[in-house]
Amino acid sequence: MIYRWNHLTLFDRNLVYYLFALSVLIVIFHQNVEKWWNYLALQIGFTLALFVVMPWLDQQEQRLLRFLRYWYVILAFPLLYWHVGLLIHLIFPGEFDPLIIETERLLFGGLPNLWIQRYVSQTLTEVMQIAYVTYWVTIPLAGAVFYFGKQYRLFEALFHYVTIIFFLCSAMFIIFPVAGPRFYMANQISVTYQGIFIGNHLRNFVNEVAFRGGAFPSLHVGAAVMILVFMWKFRRKTAIFAFLPLMIALSLSTIYGQYHYATDVLAGITVGLAMGLWANKRMGKIISLRGDVYPPAHQLDGSVPGSHPDPCW
After folding, report:
1. Do residues 69 and 54 touch, judged by C-beta distance below 8 A?
2. Is 309 exposed, middle or buried (0-12, 13-18, 19+ CB in 10 A)?
3. Cβ distance 82 to 209 under 8 Å?
4. Per-residue model confidence (pLDDT) at position 102
5. Contacts with 139 (C-beta within 8 Å, 6 or more apart), sequence order
6. 72-115, pLDDT tens digit by residue?
7. What are phi and psi for residue 178, nearest 5 degrees?
8. Which domains does the chain have, with CATH numbers?
9. I want to staple 126 with a disulfide (CB 3.0 to 4.6 A). Which of 75, 135, 199, 237 is the partner?
10. DSSP state, residue 240
């Protein structure tokens, strides 16, 4: 088992920790979930698959298999997101939107989600809807910068901290479920969000795949801010010209499209900023490791797969 554990990357291990914690919660609060044993079996099976498949993939020489070994997490994110949606009321049967709304009234003197409706137009809806779905490409785009630049340690570190953000926010969804304005304030949204070309299709797709209860904090914004801070240290020009505009547009679009309260966005920014600064501090002196050695990153220093002797990790 130690051999197999050593084959897991940092983000693999984060997934194992997360699934274990979620399994414990399911056992404790199983009375709130129908057929809870199915979820438990699924999580145990996925964890075991990591221990079986990852060591095998580490031995493969085919580029496609090696690529899938490190990029599978991008495919896992939406599946894990939907999985959380099924467990959103694992602990609490209700939603905490009234508390968020009262907080916004104290902070802003009203609700930004209501104010912003006066600026809704077809053109702006088209732009904002496209901006909102840029989150789907932000993580793989940032990963590609390091992966294809053969900076494998930075690639692994980026995915390490992105998965931490993802799992922390997912845990918050379960501990503190917030529906979000498009669900909880639907009767107060008096405008129609109509795009021009693809905006309508994108909005319909988001409405189909998203679940009620995962608004606080904004996972999209948290991950985008964390990536921006990380890129700012290691690829500043890329951060300024690519990830900073993406982060700003994404943050605005979440409120404009009624996907999040302003408080959700502020919480996401706070979590992302804290994680990004912590990540950069822990990276120590590792700025760039380049070479012709194909991943995994944790083998670049000649150590056994999965071992990370450098204290910065």
Report:
1. yes
2. exposed
3. yes
4. 97
5. 74, 77, 162, 223, 227
6. 999 999 999 999 999 999 999 999 999 999 999 999 999 999 99
7. -125, 125
8. 92-299 (1.20.144)
9. 199
10. I
